[in-house]
Amino acid sequence: MDYKGICLAAPLLVALSVFGAGGAAAQGTPEQQEACKPDVFRLCGNFIPNVEPIIACLKANEPNLSPPCHDVMFPYVPEPPKPRAKKAKAKSKPKKKPG
Fold first, then answer.
1. CA distance 82 to 78
2. Mean of the pLDDT values across residues 13-24?
3. Which residue has better confidence, 28 or 16?
4. Does the residue 15 lie in any domain?
């Protein structure tokens, strides 16, 4: 890796390690960092080394993210189950007698 690559890689790793600060994920693991590294260079390279703009750029580019980076930036969080409403027993009305 040349000097330019080192200068870009160090801030990128810092940027990718703070995803939790943006609420996108818990602290970025090495795997999460690797998942988004290509997208950062492809979509948001002009923001390197500024962490917050990189995260904002990735979020703004949601439709263009690779699936692994999308999973990091927008993790699936299942909704808690909703309590079931109790069904009220239908009271049967007495039938009217004809006549």
1. 12
2. 47
3. 28
4. yes
Tokens of residue 18, six digits: 């703070």
List all residues 6 or more positions away from 63 whose beta carbon is below 8 Å from its beta carbon: none
Q: Residue 50: what residue type?
A: N
- Total domains in the fold of the chain: 1
Q: Does the residue 81 lie in any domain? A: no
In the three-class reduction of DSSP (H, G, I as helix; E, B as strand; rest coil), residue 75 is classed as coil
Domain carrying residue 11:
3-73
| 14 belongs to a structural domain | yes
- Mean residue pLDDT of the chain comes to 76
For residues 2 and 42, what is the distance between their CA atoms, to the nearest angstrom? 19
CB 49 within 8 A of CB 9: no
